[in-house]
């Protein structure tokens, strides 16, 4: 895929051939657009053979993220996940505090909520979560 995009003949010792197969042309196109073929070639040549596959996966992931979010790249998805994790931890702490408060005054765990209360609580929780734009942007990134 790399040599085809670069319009050159692929040799048997091509550095790109093992990592950018012909059936994945978009993978190399994205990496080439963000990093450039010569930079990717230099990176791969400097790495030991056993680390090259992981490097290509990382470069592919970063290129995809950088094309989706040119300012933040993959750090944008990391920040999004950290914010989401912090919100979930706050929600869990609040729920534990409410359960402890209820158990202290009523001698046991609270009864299960009625279905109407449950639906209302789910609606309240969904309004706390990430924006639909953030979910759309980072849900398209491949998980590695």
Report on this model:
It is a single chain. This protein has 144 residues and is an all-alpha fold. Helices cover 69% and strands 0% of the residues. The chain contains 7 helices and no strands. It is rod-shaped.
SSE layout and pairing:
Blueprint: H1 2-5, H2 25-35, H3 37-46, H4 49-68, H5 74-106, H6 115-128, H7 132-139
Task: Considering the chains and any ligands shown, give keywords for the structure.
7 helices, 144 residues, 69% helix, rod-shaped
Helix and strand pattern: HHHHHHH
Structure summary, number of beta strands: 0
Mean pLDDT: 79
- Work out the oligomeric state of the chains in this entry: single chain
Unreliable spans: none
Q: Beta fraction of the residues?
A: under 5%
What profile does the largest beta sheet have?
A: none
* Structural Rg: 24 Å
Query: Between the first and last Cα atoms, what is the distance in angstroms?
Result: 21 Å
Q: Overall 3D geometry?
A: rod-shaped
Helix content: 55-70%
Q: What's the number of helices?
A: 7
Protein structure class: mainly alpha
